């Protein structure tokens, strides 16, 4: 029997997916669009950090959610629940769904935790109801709910364009060790983009150079191209982010950046021991209210490349 909280279901009668977090290796922001979004181009990377998402045919007459986060409810504030509603409406699904969600990705952190959960629900309902939709079809559905969801459905190393919903698979990033630091505050994504619009022109990432660095396995050269154009306006409001980047470099990170609209900062390490040592030191020296996570990159649908040269 599966068991999480109070609800039990027989093994083999549900669908389970890992809702993987992501980081932005680059994030270029273009002009605002008529639909209110901005044009973006960004290289995104899956992490070996995930929420556990299980789906079952429900026992009640309505959809339900249980989670280790008490305030998660089956309402339209929850993007995972909105994914259920979308799939139900689109494919005329009448049976109630029960979602079991174990959150491990920090919330409101720039790591796409909510989008990853919604992506897992879409994939889970595809399996649970035998819809046999392709990855491309699932990504199209996800794009109706959120810009990061198509990437979270696909995973790996990708270039995302448009408002983020157009996904191009890239060669896998070599295995990289990652230390994440999530400060004790959140940043509104709409605010970050509005603040960006007031910024002077910034240097843009050179995608061709970044792809060549990844192909050649030269981690030490990545920092120069790890440009997140939302970072400057966010740092202006929250200079702590810049301090955390420097702390990661002091502890041996070869490169460091803010992910998405923040506030999570990450450091990339070529060596596993160096990453673990940095994680332990930062965990013991930074205030307890910070979330500090050690992980590595992952390409779940594609063969993992070995480490950097």
What is the topological layout?
Layout: E1 2-4, E2 7-9, E3 14-24, E4 28-32, E5 38-57, E6 64-67, H1 79-91, E7 97-102, H2 113-128, H3 135-143, H4 149-154, E8 157-161, E9 166-169, E10 174-175, E11 177-182, H5 189-197, H6 207-216, H7 231-237, H8 240-250, E12 255-258, E13 265-269, H9 272-285, E14 291-296, E15 305-307
Parallel strand pairs: 6-7, 10-15
Antiparallel strand pairs: 1-2, 3-5, 4-5, 5-7, 5-8, 8-9, 11-13, 11-14, 12-13
Helix pairs in contact: 1-2, 2-3
Structure overview:
- The protein is an alpha+beta fold.
- The protein folds into two domains: 11-169, Ribosomal Protein S5, domain 2, CATH 3.30.230.10; 174-307, Alpha-Beta Plaits (2-Layer Sandwich), CATH 3.30.70.
- The chain contains nine helices and 15 strands.
- The longest helix is centred in the middle third of the chain and has 16 residues, at 113-128.
- The radius of gyration is 19 Å and the shape is globular.
Beta-strand residue percentage: 25-35%
Radius of gyration: 19 Å
User: What's the CATH topology label of the largest domain?
Assistant: Ribosomal Protein S5, domain 2
- Summarize model confidence as the mean pLDDT: 92
What are its keywords?
28% strand, alpha+beta, four-stranded antiparallel beta sheet, globular, 309 residues, Ribosomal Protein S5, domain 2, 2 domains, seven-stranded mixed beta sheet, Alpha-Beta Plaits, single chain
Describe the structure in brief:
The protein folds into 2 domains: 11-169, Ribosomal Protein S5, domain 2 (2-Layer Sandwich); 174-307, Alpha-Beta Plaits (2-Layer Sandwich).
């Amino acid at each position: 029997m599966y068991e999480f909280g109070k609800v039990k279901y027989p093994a083999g009668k549900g669908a389970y997916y890992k809702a993987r977090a992501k980081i932005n290796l680059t994030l270029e922001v273009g002009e605002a669009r008529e639909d209110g979004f901005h044009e973006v181009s960004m290289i995104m990377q899956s992490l070996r950090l995930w929420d556990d998402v299980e789906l079952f045919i429900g026992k009640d007459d309505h959809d339900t959610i249980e989670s280790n986060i008490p305030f998660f409810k089956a309402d339209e504030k929850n993007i995972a629940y909105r994914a259920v509603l979308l799939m139900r409406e689109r494919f005329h699904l009448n049976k109630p769904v029960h979602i079991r969600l174990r959150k491990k990705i920090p919330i409101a952190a720039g790591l796409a935790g909510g989008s990853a959960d919604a992506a897992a629900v879409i994939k889970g309902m595809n399996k649970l109801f035998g819809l046999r939709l392709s990855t491309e079809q699932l990504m199209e559905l996800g794009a109706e709910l959120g810009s990061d969801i198509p990437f979270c459905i696909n995973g790996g190393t990708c270039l995302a364009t448009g408002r983020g919903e157009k996904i191009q698979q890239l060669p896998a990033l070599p295995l990289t060790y990652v230390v994440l630091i999530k400060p004790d505050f959140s940043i509104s994504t709409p605010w970050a983009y509005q603040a960006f619009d007031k910024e002077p022109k910034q240097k843009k990432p050179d995608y061709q150079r970044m792809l060549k660095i990844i192909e050649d396995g030269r981690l030490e050269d990545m920092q120069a191209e790890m440009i997140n154009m939302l970072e400057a306006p966010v740092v202006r409001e929250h200079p702590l982010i810049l301090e955390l980047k420097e702390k990661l470099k002091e502890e041996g990170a070869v490169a460091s950046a803010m992910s998405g609209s923040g506030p999570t900062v990450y450091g990339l390490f070529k060596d596993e021991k160096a990453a673990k040592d940095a994680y332990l030191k930062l965990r013991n020296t930074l205030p307890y209210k910070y979330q500090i996570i050690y992980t590595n990159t992952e390409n779940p649908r594609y063969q993992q490349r070995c480490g950097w040269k």
